[in-house]
Design goal:
single chain; 11 strands; about 200 residues; eleven-stranded antiparallel sheet; elongated; alpha+beta
Amino acid sequence: MPRPTLRTARTVTAVLLSGVVGLMAVSTAGAWELDREASRIELIGTADGREAVTRVEEFEVDLEGDLDQPAGGTLVLTLQSDSITGGNDIVDGMLHGHNWFDVEAYPEIVFRSTDIQAPAEGELRIEGELELRGDTHMLTVPVSWTRQGERVSVDGRLTLDRTDFDMGRGAWRSEGTVKHEVHVDFTLELLAPSRS
């Protein structure tokens, strides 16, 4: 039996390392799990000169990939439009109506990533398509994230002009009552995919 050469030993080592890396990639594959109770999405506007906060009560996140090396990962965020609430029936009736979210015609609001990059450690830049009221809009969403064990907290704030999305039709088009600028604040608590 021939003795192994240095080249053979290096080749065997490289194959073994590739196998280990491949196993690690498989073990971390899969979707992250959303901790719904610890997560929140809020829409913050200004109405009659005062801050007006509405909440999204029902939403799902489908995230796959490695947050340290996110290129190639995917994110789909689905919001149930009839779960958007300002805390009382009068406000909710307005928000759910034709001039705003028109929830009967468009029950879901969906954001799908097209590219995820990490400009710095603990930061992501997510480019994607927002499907809202039957139209598709391109957005870039900057987020920061921190990890504690198997749990990751993703935070961000996005500032939008509601009229770019045809939100607030008719008498609501002007800034007389509701300002055009709206902030979207969110915290998503995620649990890492199972390693089994």
